[in-house]
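Propose amino acids for all 241 sites.
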């Protein structure tokens, strides 16, 4: 897939596909490369870009509120998730986190209870080019914990589910020594449950962070944080085995 960009308009297409807009029609060449400039039949020029993570976030089909890129960045930063890591993820949703982790080279097993959501996530993984790195399972991860515990172990466990504390209590059976557990929760009560479960099961370095980000506004009157938008997204609880 490539991204066609003109001013503030972006379109995701594959080589050989056609773009039809009020700016004109063009067919993407099979040998297209990032940096190429393509013109529609009306003479409008589009720049070709290779899609990156933030672009995919904007173009994924959504099945709910996706995890924000800033939260993904914190998870990668706190856990050191890297190429060749084995990652167990639950609560796939749109699949933003799974796709980012797959793009850095990790092998991701992600679980989504809703079959329709799981199908959308699989298509999003194809769009991101990580369908070989991310295995989207349909089902509740809590039903698979015994089988997963018999495996080689995961380097990172990421949870975005209401019953995250149940899985956290099994973390010693699922995560390798020195590995990390991360729970994302939109509500502080979910974080409290996750912290209690982590401490009960003997995980260490248990810390919860609120994720807040503010963009800045600059004009002739002065500079200040932008008053529009929502800066808060949720809470991240991080623990280590």
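Proposal:
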């Amino acid at each position: 897939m490539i991204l066609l960009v003109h001013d503030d308009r972006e379109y995701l297409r594959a080589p050989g596909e056609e773009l039809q807009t009020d700016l004109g029609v063009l067919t993407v060449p099979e040998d297209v490369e990032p940096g190429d400039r393509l013109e529609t039949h009306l003479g409008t020029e589009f720049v070709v870009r290779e899609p990156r993570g933030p672009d995919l976030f904007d173009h994924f089909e959504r099945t709910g509120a996706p995890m924000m890129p800033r939260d993904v960045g914190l998870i990668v930063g706190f856990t050191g998730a890297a190429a060749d890591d084995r990652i167990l993820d639950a609560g796939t949703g749109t699949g933003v986190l799974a796709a980012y982790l797959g793009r850095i080279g990790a092998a991701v097993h992600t679980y989504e209870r809703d079959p329709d959501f799981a199908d959308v996530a699989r298509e999003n993984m194809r769009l991101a080019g990580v369908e070989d790195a991310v295995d989207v399972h349909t089902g509740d991860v809590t039903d698979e914990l015994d089988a997963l515990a018999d495996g080689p172990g995961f380097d990172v466990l990421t949870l975005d589910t209401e019953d995250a504390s149940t899985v956290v209590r099994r973390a010693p059976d699922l995560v390798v020594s020195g590995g990390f557990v991360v729970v994302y929760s939109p509500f502080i009560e979910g974080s409290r449950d996750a912290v209690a479960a982590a401490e009960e099961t003997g995980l260490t370095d248990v810390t919860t962070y609120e994720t807040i980000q503010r963009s800045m506004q600059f004009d002739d009157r002065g500079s200040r944080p932008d008053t529009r938008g929502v800066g808060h997204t949720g809470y991240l609880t991080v623990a280590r085995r």
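The radius of gyration is 20 Å. The chain has a mean pLDDT of 94.
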